Structures are given as C-alpha cells and as structure tokens.
Amino acid sequence: VTGQVDITKAALEPFENIDRIITVEMRPPSLPQGYVPRLYAAARGTGGPLVHRVGAALAALEPGRVAIVTGVFAPPYLAIGEMDGPIGATVLGAALSRLGHEVEIVVEPVQVPALRALCAEAQAPGVSVLGSDEALGGDAASYAATLAAAISIEKLSLNREGIRHSVLGSRLDAMDPDIDRIFTELRRLGRPTFGIGDGGNEIGFGGMAEAVRQILGTAADCDCGCGSGIIAGTATDHVLPCAISNVGAYALTAALALHLGRPDLAPEAEVISALLLRGAEQGLLDGGTLDPTFLGDDGVPATAICAIVTLLSTIVEQQSRRLAERPF
Ligand SMILES: [Zn+2]
After folding, report:
1. What is the pTM of this model?
2. What's the CA gap between 127 and 96, in Å, rounded?
3. How many Cα atoms within 13 Å fall on the side-chain side of residue 317?
4. Which of 316, 248, 312, 287 is nearest to 54 (CA)?
5. Is residue 276 within 8 Å of 309, Cβ to Cβ?
6. Contacts by 317-326 with C-beta closer than 8 Å and gap 24+?
C-alpha cells in the first residue's frame, strides 16, 4: 500500500540513530582513533542495531540482583579513578533500579565514596555501592551465584595471560584480580552478561578477541612483555563498542526507555552535567587528559557530552511525541 509506514523498520530506526551517535569519535589526538567504528561493525555482524539487541536483552531481565562492574584505578595517575565508567554505571543503575532490579555497583574499594556521592546526586537510593573486597569476599563464584545478570562498563579486562593493560599498552596491576570471575562464572551459570567498552581492552571484548586483534593491529601491543597485548580475555554475552563507555551506558538507558515505552527513563543532560561536576569534586579525572581542570570524559568536553545526551534523549522523546497528522 502506497504511503504505508513499515512499522518494523520504523521501530528500528531510533536505535540505528543511537548506534550512529555513540560510535562518533571526538577524541583528542593523544588517544587512539579510527578503531571504534570497526569494533562496532565486528560486534554487530549482519544483525540489526546493537543498542536494539543489547537493550532488548536488558529490558527482558526479570527483576533480580544486577551487578554493574566499573572503575579504572591506576595510581598515581588515577588515584581515585576516571570519569568513564562510574557515571554511566550510576545512570544505567538508577534506571534499572526504577525498573525493580536490585542494583549493586561494584568498584575498587577506594572508589566507593565517589560512587556513593554520584548515586546521591542522581537520586538513586535503590542503588547500592560495594567495594570489590566486600562484594566478592574472596569468593567471586559465590557472589556471582547471587546475581541475575552483570554489566561491565569500561572495566579493564584481564588479557589471556591474566594481566590488565591501559588502552595505550601499560600494564595495570592495582585493580582487583578476581573481578573478571564474576563474568566467567555467570556465563558458566547461563545468566546474561553485558560489556560496554571503547578500546578493546575492556571486559566483554574477550568474546571477539580475534576481531579486536585484527582491527587494532600493532595498537594492541603492550609494553610489559607478556606477549598478549591489551586485548581483553574476558567475554560477555553482549558487547557494545562505543566511542566513550559512559555514553554507551547512556545509550543503553535510552534503549531501555524505547523498548519499554518509558520515556521518563531516558538520560538527561542536566543530570549528567551535575554528575560530571560531582565526579570531579570526588577526584575522578577525565581519562583522556588526566587534567583536573578539564571537565569532560575521555578527552571530550562536558558541553559536548551533554550535547550527545541531549541527542539521545531527543530520539526517545520524538518516539513518544503524538502530533496531529500532517494533512498533506
Ligand atoms: Zn602485557
């Protein structure tokens, strides 16, 4: 029928547009560029928009305990941590909590106060923050058994040799060595796991390690001599490569809003602006510049981050807008 709207296609387009937005790189030249669209394409394969698929899996979860694992910790450079990860965990965690999940954000012990301040700022009283020592209690498998699902946001993964690296190839040993086991154990139990990352070295990319190796080439090399480079060894069922991991989390939050017809869940630029300020106050640094006077995320200024969030929330709002039909 001429002029009839293809509902199935129309329903996918907002997700396609979100995917486009979150794969746009705006990094400063100090960070690797040009890889995200290729990591995204490899993760997507021949299927539909990634945030549609990953968001659908997240939206389908029965209410239960969900761990969100995040927090890069690399003293002395990141003595508390970086912006990327904690703010996305707060925003996505708040949305999941409002959907009835018991959300636990699991971070390095030194990061607990910062995450609690972020959750207070986001008015997410239902979200708990636990240090990895407290959550795991030396027994990651037992902790994993209490979970319905787990989400990693920008948590650096152990590589095949059991070593974590920065995206630039430096060995990082300060993070909890048992964190990855939450994901391997949940996968063994057949419970859903999600990974959001922007470099190929984060939890989740282990499931597409060969593609990451081919895409990164020599950019995957490390300087510690372990022989396996930065490529993640830990897999998740769903992987969302994006230009900034926090933005991937905001996008998944928007996808939840679209899937569930809950525009009230969409991320809000004003909230994220406030969270960036609160994060800075707590000592979280922009990971792109490590400059405490630069307010931003992965080297992208806060104004641009908020503009991206405005685009994401606009996509959600436009879907729920009911206007009079155009008469011609
Ligand atoms: Zn190495």
Report:
1. 0.96
2. 9
3. 8
4. 248
5. no
6. 317/263, 317/266, 318/14, 319/14, 319/258, 319/263, 320/261, 320/263
Half-sphere exposure of 286 (CA within 13 A, CB side): 21
Please give the helix or strand (H or E) that residue 54 lies within, else none.
helix 50-59
Please return the burial class of 244, using the count of CB atoms within 10 Å of its CB with bins 0-12, 13-18 and 19+.
buried
Q: Torsion angle, CA of 145/147/149/150, rounded to 10 degrees?
A: -90
CB atoms within 10 A of CB 223: 13
Q: What percent of the chain has pLDDT over 70?
A: 97
Please report the pLDDT score of residue 10 as a whole number: 54
Task: Please say if the pLDDT value at position 180 is more than 80.
Answer: yes
Distance (angstroms) between ligand 1 centre and the Cα of 287 equals 20
**What is the whole-number distance in angstroms between the Cα of residue 225 and the centre of ligand 1?**
5
Share of the chain above pLDDT 90, in %: 91
**What is the H or E stretch that residue 302 is in?**
helix 302-320
What is the structure's pLDDT at 84? 98
Q: How far is the CA of 210 from the centre of ligand 1 (A)?
A: 17
- Return the SS3 of 72: coil
Cβ pair 168, 200 in contact under 8 A: no
Please give all residues whose CB falls under 5 A of ion ligand 1, grouped by chain where several chains appear: 222, 224, 226
Q: How far apart are CA 164 and CA 231, in angstroms?
A: 9
Express each pLDDT in 9-60 by its tens digit. 558 999 999 999 999 999 998 888 999 999 999 999 999 999 999 999 999 9
Q: State yes or no: pLDDT of 179 exceeds 90.
A: yes
Region 68-93 average pLDDT? 98
